[in-house]
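Anyone up for a design puzzle?
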């Protein structure tokens, strides 16, 4: 009986079944590894998104607290201004009443009454100047507080945007690293590259994003 050739042995049903079984097992292993890698990537992506959302939420809460504090201070300043203006207006009204009374008496009185009227007029003018100065100071204060609030909100918005961009860069580097590992594993599993040609050093692990 002639000895079977190499191809006859390779193409024999037992050998073919063995090759098919090995290929099937290899395919299942590659599929399972791909699924596991995909789940790891999804978990990492979900964690990164949660961290980004938490950071943005903290920044928004801090911004809202600062805004409420500035608004409260602004309202307090407005109340103090209104109180001071009302007080000055009452003082002006009182002086006007005194001036009117002094004027009536001065029509029938002498030089002393005219001196009193002159003093009241001077005091009234000084109060008007003081009231105008206070109103100008309050306008400047409100403008300064509004400008500072806008600058602070802009700075916090820029800081939030920088934090989000930084974490997106970290996530992109992480996903590229995992894709490289998966591609290399698939190529090794399919025998497209030799074992000794495996990449010896992959990109370093992405650093952990700083806590905000």
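Challenge accepted. My sequence:
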């Amino acid at each position: 009986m002639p000895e079977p050739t190499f191809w006859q042995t390779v193409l024999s049903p037992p050998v073919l079944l063995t090759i098919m079984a090995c290929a099937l097992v290899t395919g299942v292993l590659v599929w399972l590894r791909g699924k596991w890698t995909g789940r790891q990537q999804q978990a990492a992506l979900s964690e990164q998104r949660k961290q980004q959302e938490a950071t943005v939420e903290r920044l928004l809460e801090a911004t809202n607290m600062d805004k409420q504090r500035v608004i409260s201070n602004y309202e307090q300043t407005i109340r103090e201004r209104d109180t001071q203006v009302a007080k000055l207006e009452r003082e002006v009204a009182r002086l006007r009443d005194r001036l009117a009374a002094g004027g009536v008496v001065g029509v029938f009185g002498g030089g002393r009454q005219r001196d009193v009227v002159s003093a009241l007029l001077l005091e009234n003018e000084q109060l008007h100047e003081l009231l105008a100065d206070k109103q100008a100071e309050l306008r400047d204060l409100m403008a300064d507080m509004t400008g500072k609030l806008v600058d602070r909100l802009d700075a916090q918005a820029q800081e939030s945007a920088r934090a989000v961009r930084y974490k997106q860069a970290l996530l992109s580097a992480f996903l590229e690293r995992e894709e490289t590992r998966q591609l290399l594993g698939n190529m090794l599993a399919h025998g497209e590259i030799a074992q000794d040609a495996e990449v010896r050093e992959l990109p370093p692990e992405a650093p952990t994003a700083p806590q905000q």
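A detail worth pointing out: Residues 104-109, 195-212 have pLDDT under 50 and may be disordered.
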